[in-house]
Structure formats: C-alpha cells, structure tokens
Amino acid sequence: MIDTSARKATIKSRIILIMTLFALLIAGMLSFFSYELISYFQRKTTIQATEFNLQLVSHIIDQDLNNLSALALASSTNSPTNNLIQDYFVSPNASPKDGLNVFASMQEDFRVNRSNSYVRRLIITDTQAKFIQVDNSGSASVPLSIHNINQLPGLSSDAKEAWERVVQDPFSRSSGIPIVLPIYGDRAARIGTVYLLANTSVITDKLKGYGLPEGSELLVTLGSQKYRIEGDTVQPLSSPYTLLPYEKNEATGALTQLAWMEQDGKRRISVSYPVKEGVLLSQTLDEKQFAPQLNAWLLLMIGVSLLVIALSGFITLYLTRTISLPVEKLRKRIDKIAQGNFLIDRNIEWNSELGDVGRGINRLSHDILTLMDSRVADEKQKQELEYRMLQSQISPHFLYNTLNSIKWMATLQNATGIAEMTTSLSRLLRSIAKDHRKLVPLREELSLMDDYFLIQKYRYGNTITMEQKLEDEELLSGLIPRFTLQPLVENAIFHGIEPKGRGEIAVTVAKSGVNDIRITIEDNGVGMNEAQITSILSQQEPGSKGLFENVGLRSVHDRLRLTFGERYGLSIESELGQYTSMNLLLPYRKL
C-alpha cells in the first residue's frame, strides 16, 4: 500500500526547499547587484569629485603660470622693457645708465605682476658679459656674478623651455621650475636670453587644504618629467609607472584623462586634468575607496535577506493552500475513481486552473458511467445479433456438396450444359465465400469472368458471344482488384446487348506505355450518350439485379483509384446504336 502521507510531506518539502533556494538566490543576487551598483555610483561620484577638484586647482595654478610667463615675455619681445634691453645689449654706445634704465623697467614689470612672489630669479643676459637680475634677493644665498651665471641649469645661448622640469638652484637650497625665452632684437635676431626660475610653491600653495583620501597621491607632469607632490615639496618619482587604457565608461569632461596606473605591482586609477600645455595635474585613486562601507552594506543586506525570506515564507504558505491542498483533494478523488466510485464531487470544482482539472475529473466520471451503460447495451445487442446469425447461417460445404451432386447427376444423364453451369456456379461461389484477397492475378480474374459469362451464356442461349485477345502472356501475372471485370461484363450484357436482342463482347488485354496495363471490354449493343456516361461514373446504379448488389461501374472506378492512384481507373467511350467501350487502366504489378 502506498504511503500517501509521505507523498504529501514530499510535495510540501519540495515547495519549502524550492522557496528557500529561491530566497537565497534572490538575496544573493540582490547582494551582488547592490554591491556592484553602490560601487559603480561611488566610483563615478569619486571620479567626478576628483575631476572637479583638479579642474578648480588647475585653473588657479594656470593663472599664476600665465602671469609668470607674461613677466618673462615682457623682457623677451615687443615691449618697452625689450626696447631698452636691445639698446643696452646691442648698442656700442651703451652706458651703465642704460643698464639702470633696463633694471628700473624690469623692476616695474616685476612689481605689477600678481604672481611675483613665486619668482626666485628673473635674469636677462647676452650670454657674454652683461646680465641683469631682478628677484626676491633675500632668497639667494650666493651672489650672482658674470663668473658663476653659467652654473644656472638650462641657461645657454640657444636655450628655450617652459615649465618642463624641476631644477635645483645652484646658489640656494631651494628648487624651482624654469622658463627660458630668447630675447629678440631687430629683424627677429636673438640677442640674449630671459631666465625665470619660479618657486615650486606656485603649484604646492594651491594644494594646501586639498582633501586627499587615504591611499591617494597627487602627481604633476612637467613636459616629460613626472613628480609627486608631498606637502610643500615636489619630489621625483621613486619608480616609474605605466599608464593603461581605462576600459570602463565614466562620465567625465572632454579634457579629463582616465587611465589605469601600474606602479610597483600595484594598480590604481589615475584622474588627470591639464593645467596648460606641458603641465598636467593628476590624482590617483585606490580601488578600496570605491568599496561600500562594510558595516552599512552588511546591515542593508541582512535586512533585505530577512525581507526576502519572510516573503518566501508567505509565498510558501500561499502555495500550500492554493496548490498542495487542492492537489491532495484531486488525488483522493482519483483514488476513489480507481476503486469504482464514479459519483460526481462538486467540491473539487474551484474557480481556478485546478478547478478546471476537477471539472475534467467529474466529466471523466460521467463519461465512464455513460460508457459502462453503453457497453452493457452493446453487449446485449451483440448477443441478440449472434443469435439471429446462428438462425440464418447456412453451411457453405452443404451448398458446395449439393452443387457437386447436381453436376454428377447431370453428367450421368448426359446433360452437359447443366454440368458446366453447375461447375461454374460452384467455382464462382467458392471464390466469393473463401477468397478474401483484395488483389489477385489477372489470370484468376479472367477465369472468374469466364465462369460468370458461361452462366449468362446458358441463360441467354446463343444470343451473346465473348472473345478474348491477349497481347502478352506475361500480363496475366499482373495484379487487379477482385471482382473488377465481372461488373463490366454484366453491364455489357444487361444494358448493351439485352435491349438489342443479341450481340458480341470483345475483351482485350494489352500494354499501355511502359508500366501500365489497359483492359478493354467492348460490346456492339445499343450504346450510350454522354449524359448516361457521366451519370454512370458519378453515382451508383440503383437497384442492381446482377451478381452483387451496389457493385457497379462507379464502384469499380473508385476501387481502382483508391488502390493505385488518381491517374488510374475506368473510362467509357460509346456511340448510340453502335458500341460501348469500357477501358480499364491499371499499373503492372506482381506479387
């Protein structure tokens, strides 16, 4: 006996297991996607905040660098100071007074410049014996002279650079960023050099109070040189780094550059913004900065997981009430049907899909009861039919034996016609009663047709004759449906020759094409018109008085088409008062 309680527990346990797994899966997916989503927005927010800070600082630094560049350009070309410098450097009659005039003009340019506090040295020189220096003189520890001026890095007769490196001042302990420009005279000829050394504080002062997260660094690129900003100093990098393309799509400005920076086996994000041409300010971001706060994220996930589990429990209870219990009732109802209880139970017809199943079970019970009643009635009718068949049954052997006895008596009395007619009738009846084949060789069908014609010949006397023509003996092995030729001969006798009084029938068997047989049965009787031919092939002849009832020409035509295909069958040609030719087309097939 099957333990139904165990089955019920299994269904419930499966629902609970599935819902538990579902809850864990949803909680895990929510945790994963929420973590990724929070990380994405935190990364995006951090990068955009860094971009904004760098952009703000870069614009301030750019103003000071532009001011310092303007100060150097005032001595380089196309200015009053440049005109005085040309007179002092080029004129052979230049006097110390001309030098004082140049110095005064340079001091005025220096004084009005808003960024003069970052100038460590501003020097003009003809790179030979003349130079003038304007700067914050208190910062220099060693006086500058014609003998040591060549110690300044980057100062030569053809030097030119702008904010491309940090150099050490040879005359003090400080370092600076040089800008070196040529001084042009008449016809754009170079007559000297402007050398301005800016204090690195021009960059570091703007970064005081800059909020730099833990694990991040500030970098500045001058030309091709890269430096790290540490407090008030700009230090060369201790080890080189490699920039790789940043494959993630973050919303940044057109000038902002994002890249992966690999240094000493560590990978960080680099956010860079150009200060001006050749000067780039960068900040590195550690991946740890993008991770959500663990405690807050854990609390959020625990809350979400508990909510999902609670919802899963509610869904489990709902499914138990709406699915498990109705399924159990349906199962019990099916068990009752299996035990023979086919009564209709309306309690299982709920207003749901399972209610449709319940209605189907009730319909099944009703149909089974109807079928059982019908089966009992059919059984009674069958018994009654069998009884009637026993009453009307005649032994075929008795009929055959009786016909044989008539044959021998006719032979003994020298009545050959009666003997031949009895023999033909016996063979005909035996073929009808015992041969159940659908297809027979043409030879046997012609023999059955001969037996039938012999009986009709004795009936009509010498008024009818039949002639057979065979093109090839091999055609006799071809298959043909049983009782195909007899109805055609019967039709020729009854409807063609009998109304005329006498006539002849010609049966021709010949090949048609390569693989077909054409059998023609032609009589010289009264003939038919087109309407009669169409009527014969379109409906059964009513009230047949021949050997078989309801087996006429239309039946022969339909059987041929059903057996061999649409292209085969019966066709009729006839002319009133002349002849009727019935043509059978069938394929040549063997057993």
What does this entry look like structurally?
Strands 9-8-7-13-12-11-10 form a seven-stranded antiparallel β-sheet. The protein has twelve helices and 20 strands. The protein has helices spanning 4-76, 80-90, 96-112, 201-204, 294-338, 353-392, 396-412, 416-434, 442-460, 485-497, 530-538, 553-564, and strands at 119-125, 131-134, 161-162, 167-168, 175-184, 190-199, 218-222, 225-230, 233-236, 242-245, 257-263, 266-276, 279-285, 439-441, 464-470, 479-481, 503-512, 516-523, 569-575, 579-587. Helix 1 runs antiparallel to helix 5, helix 8 (416-434) packs across helix 9 and helix 9 packs parallel to helix 10. It is 47% helix and 21% strand. With 591 residues, it is of the alpha+beta class. Strand 4 and strand 5 form a beta hairpin. The chain crosses the membrane at residues 15-35, 296-319. Residues 321-373 form the HAMP domain.
* Spans where pLDDT lies below 50 across 5 or more residues: 390-395
Helix content: 40-55%
Helix count? Answer: 12
Profile the largest sheet. Answer: 7 strands, antiparallel
Protein name: Sensor histidine kinase
Membrane topology: Multi-pass membrane protein
Subcellular location: Cell membrane
GO molecular function, one term: kinase activity
Compact description:
It is found in: Cell membrane. The protein is an alpha+beta fold and 591 residues long.
Secondary structure elements and pairings:
Layout: H1 4-76, H2 80-90, H3 96-112, E1 119-125, E2 131-134, E3 161-162, E4 167-168, E5 175-184, E6 190-199, H4 201-204, E7 218-222, E8 225-230, E9 233-236, E10 242-245, E11 257-263, E12 266-276, E13 279-285, H5 294-338, H6 353-392, H7 396-412, H8 416-434, E14 439-441, H9 442-460, E15 464-470, E16 479-481, H10 485-497, E17 503-512, E18 516-523, H11 530-538, H12 553-564, E19 569-575, E20 579-587
Parallel strand pairs: 15-17
Antiparallel strand pairs: 1-2, 1-6, 3-5, 4-5, 5-6, 7-8, 7-13, 8-9, 10-11, 11-12, 12-13, 14-16, 17-18, 18-20, 19-20
Membrane topology: Multi-pass membrane protein
Protein name: Sensor histidine kinase
Transmembrane segments: 15-35, 296-319
